[in-house]
Amino acid sequence: MAITAFDLAQRFVGVTETPGMASTPLVLAMLRLDDTWPAADSVPWCSAFVNFIAWLLRLPRSKSLAAASWLAIGAGVDLKDAVIGFDVVVLVRQGGHHVGFYAGRTPTGEVLILGGNQHDAVNVSAFDPARVQGVRRLA
Question: What's the pLDDT at 38?
Fold first, then answer.
């Protein structure tokens, strides 16, 4: 049985930023996989997390710290056809975008995302489906 991106990403649930001047080495490694400028884990790192998981599994990746860069990776699918384990969701947020792995829907229809930099940690969080800008299938 092959491991999916979602399966691997779940293993990182609980990884958090380090408050203050220090940084979490794993988060810095994720950031620096695609760019050399981040000096601390206090920068947006949702795309770094998705790139890190994709890199570990040799899946297509954006190689960018910009969440919107994922809109050009993989094949576009409708949200109603999203599949846990294979799809990445790009959301609009104030000041930019957010990206993470599709983790299902709540009973009230919110989109569940397994992602990094969600309240400064890797976790599953619920989002309004109106914020979904795109769903991309990586494999």
Answer: 80
Q: What is the pLDDT of residues 24-43, one digit of tens each?
A: 999 999 999 998 878 888 89
Quickly list DSSP for the chain: -PPPHHHHHHTTTT-BPPSTT---HHHHHHHHTT-S---STTS--HHHHHHHHHHHTT-----SS-GGGGGGSSEEE-GGG--TTTEEEEEEETTEEEEEEEEEE-TT-PEEEEESSSSSB-EEEEE-GGGEEEEEE--
On whether the 5-137 domain is CATH 3.90.1720.10, my answer is yes
Predicted confidence at residue 35, as pLDDT, reads: 87
For the chain, the structural domain boundaries read: 5-137
**What does the radius of gyration of the chain's CA atoms come to, in whole angstroms?**
14
